[in-house]
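Pipeline run #58 for the internal structure catalog. This entry was flagged by the ingest filter as a single-chain record with no existing model, so it goes straight to prediction. Upstream metadata was stripped on purpose; only the residue string is passed forward. Reviewer on rotation: M.T. Logging verbosity set to normal.
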Amino acid sequence: MTKSIDVTAPVEQEGTKAVVKNWYVAIGETIKEGEPLVELETDKVAVEVPAPASGVLLEILIDADGEAEPGGVLGRLGDSAGDRSWDGPRKEEAPLQPVKTNGATRHVDQPMQSEKTIEHRLSPSVRRIVAEHNLDPSTIAGTGKGGRLTRGDVRQFLDRGGKPTITPNRAGPSKKARAPGGETVETDLGMAQRIPHDTMRRRIAEHMAHSVQTAPHVTAVFEADFSAIVAHRNAHKGDYARRGVKLTFTSYMISACVEAMKVAPSVNSQWHDDYLDVFDDINIGVGTALGDKGLVVPVVRQAQAKSHFGIAKELQTLTQNARDGKLAPSDVRGGTFSISNHGTSGSLVATPIIINQPQSAILGVGKLEKRAIVRTVDGVDSIQIRPMAYVSLTIDHRVIDGAQTNAWLTRFVEVIETWPIE
C-alpha cells in the first residue's frame, strides 16, 4: 500500500505564523507536481505552496483561515483516488459534514464544497485583477495548467473589450447596504458597516503594536532639496527606459541610505539584550502599499554592492511583484533597514513611522513639492523655488542616540542635494 505524501508549509517565513487562505484543488481532485495547491498569507506576503508530487488530494488538515506553523502538515496527497493509505473513514461509514472550523480535517469521503470553487483556484494576482474589474472568472477561458485562469488570460479578455460581468453593489446607506466583505449591524452608536479583519491586516496590527511596545521611538526631521535628483532623473530616465527600467525617486533614496550608513553604521543594526548586531550587508526594505489590504515591504538585498541602475532594476521588479501578489517569502525576508515613502500619498510629515522590528530605524520621506526657500548666491540672499521634501529618521533609542541620528540624516541630505548630473 502506497503511503500518502504530506503537503507542508514552508519552513522559513518572516516573523509571524502563516494562515491558509485558499485550497486551489478540492478533495478528490487530481493535481500535477509543481502546480499551485494551497495559498498561505502572513502580514508580509501571500505565497503559493506547490504540490510536492502528482496525485489526488486526500486530506485537508488545515482549512481556510487556519494557522499554519512553519513546516506543519497542511494536507495529504495520494497516488490515485483509490489510494487510502491513511486510516480515515471508508465510504460505507456515515459521511461527515463539511468542516468549517480552523485546524480540522476533511477526508475524500466527505461532501465536496462547491461554493466559490472557481475563486479558490485563482492566484492572488488573478483574484485582485478580477475584483478590480468586476469580472466573473467562470466566463473567461483559462490557458494555465489544468485550465487554470492566469493574469494574462484576464488581460487578454479586457484587451479584447471584455466587460464587467458582476454588478458592483451601489446601494446607498440603508439597513441592507453592505460594505465590501462586511454587513450592516446596529451598535450603541447607530448603524455601522462591520468588516471583518483579514489575515494580513491582523498580522500588521500585531507587528506594529509589538514594535511600539518593544522600542522607544524617537524621530528627527530634516529638509532636503531634490533639485539635483530631479535634474539627474530628467537627463537619464530615457536611457533607463530603453534598458527596460523605470527611474524612480525611491532608487535615489536607497543609494543615499547606503552612503549615510557609512557615517552611522549602527543605524543598520539589530538590538539584542546582551549585544548589538551591526550588519555588513545593507538590505533595504521599501514599503509598498496594497490599497485597503495594507502594505508589504519587499527587500533590496546587498544594496551596498549594487550600482544605481542595479538598484532601480531590482526595485522595479520587487514593487511590481508586490502589487501583482507574486512576491516570494525570500523577497520580504532579511531586511536590515526600511524606507517609508509616505509622501506618495500626499503627507508632508509622518511621525513616528513605526520601526519594522527587529530593525533599529526607518526612513520617512514626505511629499515632494515646490517651495520658496532662501539661498545665498555670491554672498547675496535670494528667494528661490526648489523641489523640497521633509525626510525623517525614526530610531530605536536603545540603539541610536541623537548625534548618530543627525549625522545619518546630514549625510543622507548631502548625497541627495549634491547628486552629480552625469
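catalog note: Residues 81-117, 169-179 have pLDDT under 50 and may be disordered.
catalog note: Residues 5-121 form a domain with the OB fold (Dihydrolipoamide Acetyltransferase, E2P) fold (CATH 2.40.50.100).
status: ready for reviewer M.T.
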